[in-house]
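User: Hi! I'm a student and our assignment asks us to look at how structure tokens line up with a sequence. Could you show me two examples?

Assistant: Happy to help. In each example below, the sequence comes first and the structure tokens follow. Example one:
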Amino acid sequence: MDKRERPASAGGRGGGASPARVLSLGRCLFRYRSWTALPLVAFAASLLVTGADRFDPGGLLATICHGLSPLLVITGVTLRVATLARVPAGACGRGRRLSAPVLVTWGTYAWTRNPLYLGNFLLVCGLLCEVGSALLAAVVIPFFAVQYGAIVVAEEAFLRDRHGAAFDEWAARVPRWLPRVGRRARDGARRGAKLGPEPGDRLPRPSAV
């Protein structure tokens, strides 16, 4: 993704939800993102207990899903660990308020702009494969797509206001979701690595909204 991604004007016309509403929804979901999945967890638990709507244990689809499950879970967890290992405490907003005292562009953020959310999604997909419920997948995947999509809109609007041209340059060379591969991706990752903090660096006081 080479073109810069700017949110449409709030006064723009067109189908679907207005950018202003998506932005407001994203800010709300960001505040409560740790709790929004609880109803889905309860729903998944009920399916596990009852065994309803599960793939045939001996079917080919079930075999494929059970084989993919650990791969997706391990990939998701590894991506999260690799991301958090390179992000200093206080560099990103991890509470209920958006904050970004520095623009993190190094580590896994040199490959994708949302490595933590991507890791979460892969982890959830792995668990869905293990549960083996088409009904649960039909509910959970759209839910996470809407939630993370709205949250990212809010986060990127905040980062653009906070960091300006630095964010635009990063967004122009790093994909929002799927990591870019090839020489350009390696060059971008090396460039991002040079921007990482040195050991002992102190971060600026966070600003939040």
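Example two works the same way, sequence first and then tokens:
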Amino acid sequence: MNPKSHHRSAVLPQPGLEQYQKALHRFLLQRLGSAEDAADLAQEVYLRMLRVEHNELVRSPLDYLYGIASHVVYQFKLRMRREVVTFDSQALEQLAEHPPEIRADELADRLDAQQQLEWALGQLPATQRVVFLLRKRDHLSNQQIAERLGLSMHTVKKYLFQAQARMRTLWTHEMAQGENP
């Protein structure tokens, strides 16, 4: 038995892993939204890559890396959902006494965007608006929306498509004009 085949120190040569570092970080950052979590999970992905015994069977290292990363992200999000939330009353009191400062122009921009969004939603037919909100705000699947509203899947998809197209048109038009409706 060859001692080198019994124990592997790496899946890919070190330059191979470095080659995919930026792509992996972008992939994780898009799915997590946190640079710190992305960096932590990247380490887990690399560790799992190092455990692969027959790396010569990997035809597309980047695709394989993305596959492992997808599983790691899924498991991370599952753990986060199951994790017990702790309440820190001192931190809450601190935030209540010293709220983060929002500049007046930033607050005005947020309020303006909120008013534009409410106006655009008001322009949608009622059923389209409900389908759109159930999908975007409540994160329901098309099947769940169909069951809740008593509509066919085809109708839900059609209303969702029409609402998204209308919202995009209204939002783009309002942004181009730069004024309140």
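Here is something you could point out in your write-up. Residues 104-177 form a domain with the Arc Repressor Mutant, subunit A fold (CATH 1.10.10.10).
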